Amino acid sequence: MAHTFEDLVTLEQAAEQAHALYTAPDTVDVGAARRAWVEASAAFQAAVTEHAQAEGKPRIEVEMAVKKTVRHAEATG
Asked: 45-51: long-range contacts at Cβ-Cβ below 8 A with a sequence spacing of 24 or more?
């Protein structure tokens, strides 16, 4: 089943949150935080590829649209 655009936004938000935890100065288990970030990022990348193929769109176009949506929401939220 192909992911929706909203699914992709949720996955990218999770990857961004995992990255923030990984880079936080008070993170106790940096190794676990890094693994969580890598796993979340990989899930996002795989979902973007699947969505782009299902929609017949260039993968980079889909990825950039999702990242723009996530970053715009963070800037205004």
From this structure: 47/3, 47/7, 47/8, 47/11, 48/8, 50/2, 50/3, 51/2, 51/3, 51/4, 51/5, 51/7, 51/8
pLDDT digits (tens, 9 = 90+) for 17-76: 999 999 999 999 999 999 999 999 999 999 999 999 999 999 999 999 999 999 987 665
> pTM for the whole thing?
0.89
- Judged on CB neighbours under 10 Å (0-12, 13-18, 19+), 7 is middle
Q: Are 3 and 51 in contact (CB under 8 A)?
A: yes
What is the dihedral sign for C-alpha 52, 57, 59, 61?
negative
Rounded CA gap, 21 and 61, in Å?
27
Q: Which two tokens stand for residue 70?
A: 């996530």
